[in-house]
Amino acid sequence: MKILVCISHVPDTTSKINFTDNNTQFDTNGVQFVINPNDEFGLTRAMWFKEKQGASVDVVTVGGAEVEPTLRKALAIGADTAIRVDTPATDGYQVSKQLTAVIKDGGYDLVIAGRESIDYNGGMVPGMVAAMTGASFVNTCISLDVDGTNATAVREIDGGKETVTASLPLVIGGQKGLVEESDLRIPNMRGIMMARKKPLKVVPATDASTETNSVSFEKPEPKGQVTLVDAGDLDKLIDLLHNEAKAI
Amino acid sequence: MSVLVYTESENGGFKKTAYEVASYAKGVADMMGTTVTAISFNANDAGELGTYGVNKLHNVANSKLEKFNAAAYASAIAQAAKAEGATVVVISSSADSKYLGSLVSVQLEAGYVSNVTALPSSTEPFTVKRTVFTNKAFSNTAITTNVKLVGLSKNAYGLKENATDCAVQEFTPSLNDADFNVTVQSVDKATDKVTIADAEIVVSAGRGLKGPENWGMVEELADVLGAATACSKPVSDLGWRPHSEHVGQTGKPVASNLYIAIGISGAIQHLAGINSSKVKVVINTDPEAPFFKAADYGVVGDAFEVVPALIEKLKAFKAANA
Ligand SMILES: Cc1cc2nc3c(=O)[nH]c(=O)nc-3n(C[C@H](O)[C@H](O)[C@H](O)COP(=O)(O)OP(=O)(O)OC[C@H]3O[C@@H](n4cnc5c(N)ncnc54)[C@H](O)[C@@H]3O)c2cc1C
After folding, report:
1. C-alpha A206, offset from chain centre
2. ipTM reported for the complex, 2 dp
3. Is residue A242 in a domain?
């Protein structure tokens, strides 16, 4: 089985979010970048397929040279080959177009992406890639097994879960549950050394059209002070929630 | 030209989010000088769609579509949009709508923006405000394609009445085998509990509760309020509560009216995911807990004393206000 894991290079969850150039650009100053958490669960599940069932695992990111440390980390975790599509990621459509070209070129059976990336939260890429390549698609995927060309997946739905079957080629939008938090791997020294020798291919972009563009950013209004209520006076809390906040 | 809105139903009746997206679609239609058409699957009737400004409902009555099917639903929505000549398509941010959104986008070659929080600031160019960086910021995003697809954030617009008559028409999309590539084998859904996605009120608890045996009072508080229960990430990682209750940046987003956090410190990743809730209450022994900076109301106290007392007082309040 040929697996491609789509990796988004995102600011660490603790990052302070600021903008520059008159609020049109995200300020990357002092920001640490990591593998998007949803993608890390997917990558770890891909490693399971590789080790337990036999599969090749490639990883891909769309972005400039600055994303390469994130790809190297994925190689250190165990991916075989990394691919970087050499163009800035601009919107979900443009990224999906680039990934579609990589998928068609590589003939992958299974494409694992994250449900959403934690920077722009669009949640568009997995579904767009599935539609553009004509593959089956399962989103918010929390469990995945493959037997030959048949996949069984569990999808999280509002209020529960649903078990589905689909045939390969398949694209999933994955998240926690694909593997447990405790299964995530921190690259060890040997992995990091080996990653240096693994191929990191840089491929040119196909076309650069977009469907949306971010015009400007804004930060939320600063929050007002909290109203403290004495633990011995909970009637007051109920009164505030009922009469002031109108929440109960 | 019209605005098409996908109104979600369950067992034939519309969900509350359906009325919110309908209200929003009417707002957009007014800006553009046009009308709203809805599309649904196996709805019994037009429900209250007319109340919220929908003129026409295309109902797809098809027993093969009784269970949600992203590919087939997306094809039907795209075909309805084409039949209507819709230039704007509105969906919600439920798990199902987010699942089908990008499929609709590709079929219609429609630029798609999700997590939208307000009516367009302009329709020429078509520009909407959406949350980014998990609620830490907003982006004003322009959609440059002919057809626009807007995914509305939950609870961002609310219900707005705009009564009109809603005519129901049967709509029969042409579906092919590829639309049924993914087949549902079984659904495991608690029908007696309100979901985090639908809940007006969410009661959430963290590691401060010390162990899973102490969740009885959390469930009781939720029961009294008709709320859904949720938890912080370590609580689900420790197996105290199911993963489906994990909320925050890497869990489920919460956009309820009221969010009550018990024994949760308020780490940045937790707050990011729950910040779009309207009113936030924190109960914590530590007055320095970061959650107090994000909350509207706070009680500094021991959850094991405060929560049982709050339950009793709420019961009395409910009885008096019934
Ligand atoms: C990449 C990444 C992603 C993450 N994503 C998420 C996420 O999506 N959601 C999430 O929740 N976390 C997430 N986290 C974890 C987050 O950083 C915090 O560790 C977590 O939210 C803390 O959970 P907690 O508040 O339950 O526990 P703690 O931080 O241990 O807080 C417990 C709180 O309970 C209080 N307390 C103790 N006893 C009592 C009592 N008797 N009565 C009342 N209060 C009491 C304490 O004062 C304390 O404030 C993420 C972390 C990382 C690194």
Report:
1. 22
2. 0.94
3. no
Tell me the mean pLDDT in the region B174-187: 95
> Structurally, how many domains does chain A consist of?
1
Q: Do A14 and B198 touch (CB under 8 A)?
A: no
Q: Tell me the per-residue pLDDT of B46-67, one tens digit each, with 9 for 90 and over.
A: 999 999 999 999 999 999 999 9
Q: Helices then strands (H, E): number in chain B?
A: 8, 18
Domain match, B19 and B58 both = yes
Q: Which residues of B touch A212 (CB under 8 A)?
A: 111-113, 141-144
Q: Tell whether A240 is covered by a domain.
A: no
Q: Model confidence at B190, in pLDDT bands (50, 70, 90)? A: confident
What does each C-alpha distance from B242 to A86, B118, B197, B266 come to in angstroms? Answer: 41, 33, 16, 20
Nearest to B141 among A118, A124, A215 (CB): A215
Measured distance CA(B119)–CA(B104) in Å, rounded: 21
Instruction: State how many domains chain B has.
Output: 2
Q: Point out the ligand 1 atom lying closest to the alpha carbon of residue B207.
A: 26
The domain of A151 spans 2-219
CA-based torsion, B74, B77, B83, B89: positive or negative = negative
| Closest approach of B78 to chain A, Cα-based (Å) | 13
Please check whether residue A235 lies inside any domain of the structure: no
pLDDT in tens, A4-56: 999 999 999 999 999 999 999 999 999 999 999 999 999 999 999 999 999 99
DSSP state letter for B252 = B
Assess whether B19 and B132 both reside in one domain: yes
What is the DSSP-derived secondary structure letter of residue A198?
A: S
What pLDDT, in 10s, does the model give residues A150-160? 999 999 998 89
Q: Is A211 on the interface with B (CB under 8 A)?
A: yes
State the CATH number of the domain containing residue A161. Answer: 3.40.50.620
- For A217, the 3-state DSSP assignment is strand
Q: What is the pLDDT of residue A154?
A: 98
Domain C-terminal end among B146, B180, B214: B180
> Which ligand 1 atom is nearest residue B251's CA?
8
From B165's Cα to the closest Cα of chain A, the distance in A is: 31
**Ligand 1 centroid distance, CA of B207 (Å):** 6
pLDDT digits (tens, 9 = 90+) for B78-115: 999 999 999 999 999 999 999 999 999 999 999 999 99
Q: Tell me the residue range of the domain where B69 lies.
A: 2-180
- A131 located within any domain: yes
Distance from CA of A192 to the nearest CA of B (A): 26
| Residues on chain A touching B134 (C-beta within 8 angstroms) | 118, 121
